[in-house]
Amino acid sequence: MENSPKPKSSCSSSKDLSSCTFFRADDLVANGPTVLHIALKEANRSDVTPNQLCTHFASLMALMAPELNRVFNSALLDLGIRCNEVKLPSQASQNNITLPTSSECNKSKWGLVEIFACCVFMLLKDITPSTSSQVIEHPGPLGARQAEIVRSKLGQSLAVRKAVIDFIVKSIGNIDLMGKACWFLYNDLSWSGMEVFNCVKDTLFLTNSPLMTDPSLTREVSNFNVAVEAVVGCKHPRFFSFISEESQLAKIDGNKFPTVAMFARIMNDEDLMKIWYESIQRVRRAFVANLGR
């Protein structure tokens, strides 16, 4: 397999669009493992171009979640990529594709659950070579370089992110392998990218902290209430950071309520709370000492 020729027309340029190979199975059940193996191999080539990679990635996602096919094809068009569909195994020979044996498909350590989860992480999480091991197992089905490219291209499509989140939420009740993968993703991605907002929400807002009625914090509390309204009004509040426009994301920026966020972090951290309390006690002792002079 290592010396097999690259698929013919893997990516060719036209006047307006580049045409890249999009792999599709003749039969999803019977030929799915074959397409999975080939698309992963092509995506991991050291000389794969960003356009080729995005198309192979879309092939993988459409194979594992067919209802996402339309949104990925639309996103590829927006990137200037036209899909040249190659059905496997029926069109393998005319496209110079060497088909893997059954044993080659079956010996891969990566199953549907791991590959789908890895692909979703690549779309939604900021994965770099230095952080990839914190997000996906190393070596994963796709590497950190591929993750950076996918995130910077397909991951910038709001339509793609919304469709993927919708699919995850809809599938968490399924008892099949995909349902298990989506349940894992649902829990792992919930409230991601909303750490400051969540800290204020859990520590001050939901506890009706007196700080939220302090007159000196009126503007910041008002800004936080705006953020709450934006999140609550979102279709999937726990995935707000993935499915919202930039103008909406700006509302949960901690810079809109910095003092409130600072107090929330202090109250939510035992060590910071101890340091803050000791500082108050030192000020109190100094004040009392000055009164006695």
Blueprint of the fold:
Blueprint: E1 11-13, E2 18-25, H1 28-43, H2 50-64, H3 69-78, E3 81-88, H4 102-106, H5 112-124, H6 132-135, H7 144-152, H8 158-171, H9 177-189, H10 195-205, H11 218-232, H12 240-243, H13 246-249, H14 258-268, H15 270-291
Parallel strand pairs: 2-3
Antiparallel strand pairs: 1-2
Helix pairs in contact: 1-2, 2-3, 5-7, 5-9, 8-9, 10-14, 14-15
- Physical arrangement of strands within the biggest beta sheet: 1-2-3
User: What would you call the quaternary organization?
Assistant: single chain
Counting DSSP H or I runs of 4 or more residues, the number of helices is 15
How many strand segments?
Answer: 3
Instruction: Determine the strand fraction and express it as a percent band.
Output: 5-15%
Per the principal axes of the C-alpha atoms, what is the gross shape? elongated
Rg, Å, rounded:
25 Å
Overall pLDDT metric: 85
Percent in helix = 55-70%
Order of helices and strands: EEHHHEHHHHHHHHHHHH
The structure class reads mainly alpha
Gap from first CA to last CA:
88 Å
- The low-pLDDT segments are 1-6, 130-135
